[in-house]
Task: structure prediction
Amino acid sequence: MKLNYRLISMMLLAAILACGCGKNSDDPAKDSGKITAVVKDTASPDNDPAKGGKKDNKDTPAPEKTEEATGTSAPEKTEDAAGTPAPERTEEATGTPAPEKTEEATGTPAPERTEEAVQTPEPVKLEKIKFNPHVYSALLSEVYPQEWWDSFYNMCDALREGKDTFECASQEIYNWCLDITTLAHFFPAAGGKITNKSNDGTKPFKNGIGRIYYKIPVKDFLKRQTEFEAEIENILNTALESDDTDFEKILKLYEYMEANYTYVSDTVSDGAFSYTALMSKQGECDHIASNYTYLLLQVGVNAVEVGCNGNLNHAWTYVVLDGEGYHCDATWALHDENEPLHLWYFLNSEEMRSADNLSMDALHAPMLPKFFVSNSDLKFPATSDRFACFRYVDFIKLDEKTKTLYYQSDNGVKELKYENALR
Result:
């Protein structure tokens, strides 16, 4: 029996309109589902004798499956199906990690991980301390004016280049420049290896030009000087840092002398004594004092070797720190390996030196023209008791960040804020 499909369709449409479906529904998606359901119920395969199958309804979209109709959650809409971006699937929902968004997927550039974000800044590297061929003691400036130093530095530069002449202001200054004592204190490698005595008939000084007479071949002297400069740089960069304060320089080099030098009494006594002591790390009190003084001058600390004759013949170093004079005895700092560094003779006043049976009234300085301080207008006062706390105590450590020195006294561990002590 043949059915009139047109009649059936008209009857269905009339029924829908009579019910008001599709006009006032609050949920267009649900209304669309009802229409499709009715069509599915009436359009069975048996009703299409021509194709024997289901007739596609291309003008009506397929209804979405809802949880109410199927008992399962409806799949989320994707951007392809609905025009709206689908939410990201997370690891919690799918069991697998959600892929990271890339510029291709989102249209927004992914933030770059920079090296700055993951690395900590490198510590500032301090400059190495370089050898200073022009050491200077401001304490002696009243005795030796600037033209003396300028002439001496001309000689030092000439020696470093293996030359045999240099500009010099006068005969007197020329003699001072090549004096054994001057060389020992301010240019040790030349001590005992050059002279102002002519060996070829030439005049040592003439018309502002001084001559250098080498006692050894020039190439041997240059090798000696090069090795000496390398050793000085090694000592300074081992013991110090280029940003050390004067207090830290004085203490650290004092500690270096104590840890590396040995007192011996049978050392050379010629003009090379300062050089020999520095290269071998051994000597008597005047050699040790001369070396400690020279190392301090290398890094700009105002210092000079002093000593005394009387109850006890001895030599040490006089330093100026923050405008005050102090006595530092590197020889008496030496001790056995198992003992700590004694600060007993570090930054002493005159009163403390006198208590050690040293005759301060007989004080002398080898670099003074007349040797004894009493014969000079230049004095070396040391009246400050800022560091009297170091008497009979032992050094423990130095904290440079907090500017604190820790020491062991009879009453336990003590500390000194040394920057405050200098104010």
